[in-house]
Amino acid sequence: MRAALAPCLAAAAVPSPHLPIALGPRSMSAALRFDGRVVLVTGAGGGLGRAYALAFAERGASVVVNDLGGDSKGHGKSSSAADQVVEEIRAKGGKAVANYDSVEAGEKLVRAALETFGRIDIVINNAGILRDRSFARISDEDWDIIHRVHLKGSFLVTRAAWNHMKNQKFGRIIMTSSAAGIYGNFGQANYSAAKLGLLGLSNTLSVEGRKYNIHSNTIAPTAGSRLTQTIMPQDLVDAFKPEYVAPLVLWLCHERCQENGSLFEVGAGWIGKLRWERSLGSIVREKNHPMTPEAVQDKWEKICDFDNASKPRTIQESVSILNDVLSQIESEDVSTNPTSYTRSTSSGFDPSKYVGQKLPTVVYNYTHLQPILYALGVGMSTKDPDHLKFVFEGSEAFCCLPTFGVIPAQASLWDGGLSSIPGLNIDFTKLLHGEQYLELYKPLPTSGQLTSESTIADILDKGSGALILLDVHTYCGKDLLCYNQFSLFIVGAGGFGGKRTSEKAKVTVNPPNRTPDAVLSDVTTVDQAALYRLSGDWNPLHIDPGFAAFGGFQKPILHGLCSFGFAVRHVLKHFANNDVTRFKAIKVRFVKPVFPGQTLQTEMWKEGNRIHLQTKVKETGEVAIAGSYVDLTSTLDKPSAKEPIKASGLHSDLVFEEIGRRIKEVGNQLVKKVNAIFQWDITKDGETAAQWTIDLKNGSGEVYQGPAQGSADTTFTLSDQDFMEVVLGKINPQKAFFSGKLKVKGNIMLSQKLEMILKDYAKL
Q1: Does this model's pTM top 0.90?
Q2: Which ranges carry the Ketoreductase domain (predicted)?
Q3: What span, in angstroms and rounded, lies between the C-alpha atoms of 48 and 41?
């Protein structure tokens, strides 16, 4: 492990962007308050714990001050330490209660918070003792008591608070590790082992708690306290004040902070974030040959070479390399650098670290007001009688415009979005909204609660900038309503040596080379941007003349997604009689800005059910939206997200058809058990011969031929013959994987559910 020495700021700065997508400007000087929050600090009678308790209370939190009152070796008990801190807090007008229990009685500590303040939001696991001895002299008691207090105590206190945090969909947890645990230290084997154990505990809690908005982070502080007095001279103890650690803890525990599963060293006013770093390593065996220690010796220098090292952040990233290794061994094309094709050779930026990372889930609650406000924002008016069903909730045909589907999805870009991905250091002031794709699977409800799940699908190197493809799936309950792909261009972030294209990108299509079949125009009002921004895009670029001038514009510009809404209105009016159920998908590329008050002119070409379009500013003739199209369903077709594909004639076809038939019988139950989308790429003679998708995430589950709509959680690749051997039980999936016959991409852990699906539902 190497420490990333870049300082960590005490608040998240999200610079104000210049162009149509913003991540929301936020003042660095805004005070972080904890009003209404309840904090439990263990070992709070002195040192770091006392500093945390005082700091939280000063900023409005209610604090449970826990301290057993023993000495640094765990002997004795007293109430005075906790009482003194509580008195300090109350004397300053704060709210606090003392607790004198050992952390081994975790339930009692949390009960004190619930009985006094009614809830528990934040747990700071700080309590600790020392039993320093050289390794040969450590007794069983010395070992056990250190682990009981540090590791088991933190486990018991956190477990007692966990379900309360889950139920309220909020929780912040701090584990206290140590440099001794990270690097080792003479005479502290018991302490070191327990302290690094806390890091593993915190990392797992960060994974399990993420969907409940429970974040867990670990700190390794250096501060003057009774514990550090045994290993630091007094002048350093005096210099490393606990008050220099507390600000990091407060920031990590604030609702604005989206940091999760991270480790920080902190002391003397400095903060550094640590991460794992892994050498690219070397393959040390060959197909059909034994692996020997001599081969390891021969490759040792390469194994330990950290040039172009990778930095895995998840267990999935950690084991994903093995699939490539197995493929290379099987093909007898062994490279000493099996993952070099994914690494940057010029700037050190490694996009593979971020591709596949999920952003925090966003919940969007709305009433009929939001769809009406959106319709008005994209130019709907009571002047047109056919618009009434979009702007009047009392209309019998009241419905949402299809492009309203971008509104709950765009919330994924604001606070806690891309800026929450650790290490993805993007200058959001240089962000342009390059392209947008929206596909609708069901008509949008006019009110309700929608949940959006976002994933970084790919990062491309365009030379002059980096292009981030962000996939957002929006659900109503378990039903998938729509899929958005945001193409976000970061000016100046290119040149890192990455790929320029991606099979995951939804591509634009040029219109036919002929006169448009239809042209419609609408004049935007001078207040169009002021009205549209009320749907959730608060970027001051669209309202504040001074801010627009700072971005290089003579006045505020119209939102790109507002022009996007106008274009779809024109298509629906001319080709679908404003029937929203006929809308299937749209892809656009934003080219030039539009100013409120200008006229949007949409040129349209019909090619079957696809309407090609481009939108111009009528006054200037400049193209604002290009390479775009809207896909409509046939008047005879019901809306469907799946296109039929001809049977491929493979043996596996029969199996997938049978799986589909059986899943229909128990779909709802299976969706609850599995909750994932699996894509199968079936090969024959080394080429992909068929694709099948088993969707056990949306609705009641289904199996269809073709690639997964949106993104698959896990993609399996194997030959038709090998697939049949797996199904017939001649080889189990694990053996197929480790032999290189079965290749897995995406969430490899979900493959554990594969055997159950094949065993129970693939019987012929």
Answers
A1: no
A2: 37-211
A3: 10
